[in-house]
Fold these 2 entries.
Entry 1:
Amino acid sequence: MAQRKSTKGNNRDTQTNTHSNHASIKTSSHQGKRIAKATLLLVLSIFVSAGLLSFLCCFDYTTLTGPRQVTTTITKPPIITLHRFPRQCGVVQNQTQPVSEDGTNKNKPRSNHSRPPTCPSYFRWIYEDLRPWRETGVTREILEKARSKAHFRVIILDGRVYVKKYRRPIETRDTFTLWGIVQLLQWYPGRLPDLELLFDADDRPTVRSIDYRGQQHPGPPPVFRYCSNDASLDIVFPDWSFWGWAELNIKPWAKSLVAIEEGNKMTQWEDRVPYAYWRGNPNVARTRKDLLRCNVSDQEDWNTRLYINDWATEFKEGFKNSNLENQCTHRYKIYIEGWAWSVSEKYIMACDSMTLNVRPTYYDFLIRGMVPLQHYWPIRDLGKCRSLKHAVHWGNTHVDQARKIGEEGSRYIREEVSMEYVYDYMFHLMNEYAKLLKFKPEIPLGAKEITTDSMGCPAKGRWRDFMAESMVMSPSEVSPCEMPLPYSPMELREVLERKANLTRQVEVWEDQYYQAKTIGRNGSGYVLKYLQMKYVYDYMFHILQSYGKLMKMNVEVPEGAKEVCPETMACPVKGGRMRQYMDDSLILSPSNKGSCETPPPFEDDELKKFLEKKKSVEKEVEKWTNEYWEEQNKSLQH
Ligand SMILES: *[C@@H]1O[C@H](CO)[C@@H](O)[C@H](O)[C@H]1NC(C)=O
Ligand SMILES: *[C@@H]1O[C@H](CO)[C@@H](O)[C@H](O)[C@H]1NC(C)=O
Ligand SMILES: *[C@@H]1O[C@H](CO)[C@@H](O)[C@H](O)[C@H]1NC(C)=O
Ligand SMILES: *[C@@H]1O[C@H](CO)[C@@H](O)[C@H](O)[C@H]1NC(C)=O
Ligand SMILES: *[C@@H]1O[C@H](CO)[C@@H](O)[C@H](O)[C@H]1NC(C)=O
Ligand SMILES: *[C@@H]1O[C@H](CO)[C@@H](O)[C@H](O)[C@H]1NC(C)=O
């Protein structure tokens, strides 16, 4: 593949230069962004291919085909739109294979008529994300406040999508996000309401809730982005990688899933390496650098195996080490955030391995549906090495439970975050959002319509392949899943509390595990310190001295008694172990220090208390033992 494409090398180089110049101009002006630029997502920005950077100037209005549904109420099966892409517009790049061999589109979301009618529970967060505008709605004025933060504006009007771009984001995130929206309209044609939304394609949330408290702020700017956190009001939307991450050769989600499922079959759980695996770029966040300290070394084995992914080498070698499907070889896989949330999450989760989730600060649209100990194992951010070591120890001593957590996490990702549900999430989010709009959406000056053809036809290389692979060929045969009801304040509190409790539970186990280690250390500390021979002699000295003080008689040497001294005892013993031990324990010269001082005697209740304390600790441990066996008996009976 690489060789076949080599003729485009010059083209790519040109682009490389252009793009890195562009990046460096930005970086010098913004220190904060400089770090952002260093993110994993960015490492490859220098490899951005020519394909889509300039697609805006290549709109081909003649490719618009077929009548479109124009109202939002029609539910009749809509007319199937025929596209030139990828078949007939492949003049420029015909050498890349656009569709799968048999001509069918394997990546079309599967229609499954037995799909449960209610959406997965993480859809309920849509209401929470839109809550800040529930009273005020989104007026034109409120919307335009988001303009300065946005990379682009999406307008959906009469079933068509238009875009107006403001700034260029990292790599081609915007392209694949827009592609996803165009495909959504293909999947549910004529069913999306008119709307205008503003999208910020950078990593970190920007709408701080603290800035929008009180009466003087009628409504925060509604900014759509890929992730948010508890201190922000950004609205989360599925990220571009569901349609592919061309710069890193990460295929569209539906296709990645198939590959990872194959990879899963290659190594059965029993045969997987019983350590925690991570592979990634540590330079994007301090917490990742911190993680690397947990790698196995001569001094310490934290039960981890960590590797740095060097994307530049990966690129040169055709991504052979970063293939996701080849990374399902360990029983435990670590998920850790990068500059913000990390796209790697879903691929890690899909491996059937137990995910060790280093406490995240950001959330994307899917993570909020996951529960500790059901879908993943929570890891402390502070003290992560100890936490990881314990997690792996727990997993290796509770193999069935660990395996179940791994499988349940994967099932969640495969089934509840399937492409169908990704489209459903987008659909419902946009629908609920549109209900809040207090103005009639308009197409602003300079906006362009985007379609499958207008985006796909000019695309080249992997960009084009991924578009072809993630293209929706025909509308869904089923309606979107039904939105669940919003959380009541009490339900929401309970959900959060339950998660916090489960995380706390794991932390308690961890503390107990390390307590066991401390007891061991304290025990040997006691012996090593207080059972030195010096103290044994001191003890003998003091007890004999105290005993001697009690003598109410004259001490006499009885008949037949013999004086003993080292010579008389040792000299007759000729060699052997006995002689050896005598030699080894012979005192050669008197102590030059006095004996230690005896502490004062126990007071009456002091001794009683000491013994009672010992007893009660013993009772407590006995209780734990009984509880443990009752549990075991119960689970045996079931
Ligand atoms: C593209 O390739 C297909 C099959 O490989 C071929 O049938 C078609 O004619 C080619 N199109 C052009 C414009 O070269
Ligand atoms: C459809 O969904 C059901 C339940 O969700 C599942 O058991 C079944 O395997 C799915 N069928 C197909 C063809 O995907
Ligand atoms: C972690 O340790 C393994 C095993 O010694 C080694 O192969 C790997 O390169 C180390 N990773 C890093 C990032 O140093
Ligand atoms: C969480 O733990 C607290 C204290 O142990 C308990 O009172 C509460 O009911 C738990 N909440 C949930 C939702 O499990
Ligand atoms: C171990 O020893 C230290 C210091 O003597 C003490 O503070 C700690 O409580 C002991 N740990 C346990 C588990 O008894
Ligand atoms: C568990 O079951 C065994 C045999 O069935 C019984 O002897 C034992 O007392 C039980 N232990 C507890 C703690 O219930």
Entry 2:
Amino acid sequence: MYLFDCITSRSQYFRMLIKIAAVFVMAVFVQGEKLYYKPKMIKIIPGNEVEPQKKPDFCNKLDCPEYKVIESSSGYELREYTATHWVSTTLAGVDYSEASGTMFHRLFDYIQGKNAKKEKIAMTAPVLVRLIPGPGPACESNFTMSFFMSNKVTDPPAPTDPTVALNSAPTFRAYVRQFGGYVRKIEDWIKEAQELIKSINDSSKYYTKFYFTAGYDSPFRIFNRHNEIWFISK
Ligand SMILES: *[C@@H]1O[C@H](CO)[C@@H](O)[C@H](O)[C@H]1NC(C)=O
Ligand SMILES: *[C@@H]1O[C@H](CO)[C@@H](O)[C@H](O)[C@H]1NC(C)=O
């Protein structure tokens, strides 16, 4: 199928995994430091309790976008996401792992303070990658990686890296396939995407020219890892 023809994996995966592991160590360190100096206080004002955001378990401690399930089937879930804010970067390339490594660094630098206010922003989930596979002999695909902007960041600082941009998504619906384990190469994502296509069994229901990979865990989480493939509903 055309959608998957052009994407191949090179031996970049482990190099990327190590890079991502390194930045997650930094993230844990920085967040731990923040927690140490500023313990979180939960204030309950009688009669004015704010209902805590119901977060899916697979987000663990990270903030992640809210959604409701519209339809649940054996092979997929149709979700409706509320309007969201993201910080994104785009890259054209052939290799998914290499592109992901580069884009992850750009976005991670942004949340680590490479922005107009030199503000640090907590890591969120998922790390979303949109793939637009390209036709033609060079098989160059367009990749866009996005980090979710938590509602807690009320005024996201402007990025200083010209390849990084803030953007908003209106409410949208996505067909989602969920699976566990480590995703070691692009072929693993493709296999799951093909399963999702089979379960939906109606390509008129979603956009077929692109799809998303969503990762929720750092390389350090060994058990209960969570990954998703999304097709956007029409
Ligand atoms: C990728 O993006 C570039 C620049 O925006 C565009 O010219 C090109 O057509 C895109 N390729 C695909 C496969 O969408
Ligand atoms: C897929 O859809 C076709 C009709 O469009 C139907 O005949 C077929 O049984 C469906 N397959 C599954 C596995 O639901």
